[in-house]
Amino acid sequence: MRMMNPQQKASIDLLDSLLSKGSQRSKTLLHDPDSNGDDGWYMCAPKCFNDALDIKFNCTPASPGWTQSTCFAFKGQDTIYDTPKAHQIWSAALQEIGFSVIVQSASSAGQGAVGSGRRYAGNVGFAVCSPSEDKQKLIRRFTTSLSQDDFVRFLITGPSDDLRQLMVDNGISPRS
């Protein structure tokens, strides 16, 4: 298993805990809801992805504040980069981007049939893109899919060994 920084370790431990508890909401969050995506995860998931990460603000007087659960809901055209430097003038961003993922199709994670006690992990079909050799545009290198749960795990820790090999086979050099 790859080495994780403290934020990744805390996020993965929380993810595993949340997944084991079903639909309970937690006051402990996978990452800062005001983040611009530079909070230690492998991929840059800025606050525009809070809803997809099931990070919600609870307005009820009894328990106000941010909460977290596991009804992950990434959707088509969500685009996530490997660096927060991707969110600048595009010509400059292309010089910094190692790769990106663009969600092509998805089904949300969530609870199964009422009373079944089962949880549906969802699905995310996505394209993996990297800059052209002249760094003028992104080129789709391949497509693959993961469950929504495993997609969140990928955002936190980076590609699994199998996905990493697929990236290398398609000319992408993911960072360690």
Low-confidence sequence ranges:
none
Strand sequence of the main sheet, in spatial order?
A: 3-4-7-8
In terms of DSSP E residues, the strand content is 15-25%
Question: Strand count, sense and closure of the main sheet?
Answer: 4 strands, antiparallel
What's the number of extended β-strand segments?
8
Task: Describe the overall structure.
This protein has 176 residues and is of the alpha+beta class. The chain is built from four helices and eight strands, in the order H-E-E-E-H-E-E-E-E-E-H-H. The chain has helices spanning 6-20, 90-96, 148-157, 161-169, and strands at residues 55-58, 65-68, 79-81, 100-107, 110-111, 119-120, 123-131, 138-146. The strands form three sheets. A four-stranded antiparallel β-sheet has the order 3-4-7-8. The chain is globular. The mean pLDDT is 93.
Describe the secondary structure blueprint for this structure:
Blueprint: H1 6-20, E1 55-58, E2 65-68, E3 79-81, H2 90-96, E4 100-107, E5 110-111, E6 119-120, E7 123-131, E8 138-146, H3 148-157, H4 161-169
Antiparallel strand pairs: 1-2, 3-4, 4-7, 5-6, 7-8
